[in-house]
Structure formats: C-alpha cells, structure tokens
Design a protein that fits this description.
The chain contains four helices and four strands, in the order ααβαββαβ. The protein is of the alpha+beta class. Bound molecules: nickel (II) ion (NI).
Length: about 140
C-alpha cells in the first residue's frame, strides 16, 4: 500500500459546480472519492487498450430450442477454453436460457469470443463487460 498524497487542482468554477452537483447525485461523500473513482476508471480503460490481462464477463440470452445453437455455443467456447475461467447456465423459463461466462485474458480475445457468440443464430442478447483483474489498480 502506498502513501496518500494531497494535490491541488485548478478548475473552472462552473465546471467545478457541475462536478459537485453530479457527485452529490451519485452519493459521493467528497471530491477526493469522486476523483479517485474517475482515475481508477481511466486506468482500467487503459488496460483494455494496452492489451493487458483483464477479467470480464459475457452474458448470453437465447432460446435453447433453436436448432444447433447449444452445440454451436459449446464449440465456440471450446475454441476459447484458454480464456474461459467458468460459466454458469440458468434456465430462465421454459424456452430461454441465460449464461454468464467469466473470462480472463487479452481484451482482443474477449471481443473475438463475444463477437462469435453474438453472431451465432438464435442468440437474443450478448454483452461483454470488460473489467480488470484489479492487480494494478489501488
Ligand atoms: Ni437452459
């Protein structure tokens, strides 16, 4: 754990007012907390660009009756077994399934996997959430 340092920020008055209003709305106790979160957010976004190893999730919703779809999804996931940590399948109702795939690897590989899943015929929803392993974020 590193030391906490203080630094001053010069800002346009109107911009600062808007920032404070937004922070109140979001429930931040003070500016420092809001600025810390903004910095972390930017550092995480940079990880996605720098091709670091990141963690993420892919959420799928599909009708399992669609011919060949479940086989196709298994095949695609086996092609990316090296970045898939775990997956969970939930039967939402008689027809629909929700699947969460937890991934860890390069952002480009994640996007490729997500794109392949999304383009499988019968997928109703597919979203990729890129996060971070948290290793370099304090
Ligand atoms: Ni199911």
């Amino acid at each position: 754990m590193s030391h906490t340092l203080r630094f001053g920020v010069s800002l346009d008055g109107t911009l600062l007012k808007r920032f404070d209003r937004l922070n109140r709305k979001k429930g931040y106790a003070n500016r420092s907390e809001a600025i810390r979160d903004l910095i972390r957010e930017e550092l995480v976004k940079q990880e996605w660009i720098d091709e670091s190893v990141i963690a993420g999730t892919i959420t799928l919703v599909y009708d399992h009756h669609t011919r060949g779809l479940t086989d196709k999804l298994v095949e695609i996931q086996h092609d990316h077994y090296n970045i898939i940590i775990s997956s969970q399948h939930v039967h939402i109702d008689h027809d629909n399934c929700l699947e969460i795939i937890i991934v860890k690897g390069a952002p480009k590989q994640m996007e490729k996997l997500s794109f392949q899943l999304k383009s499988a015929r019968g997928i109703k929803h597919c979203s990729l959430t890129m996060a971070t392993t948290g290793k370099n974020i304090n």
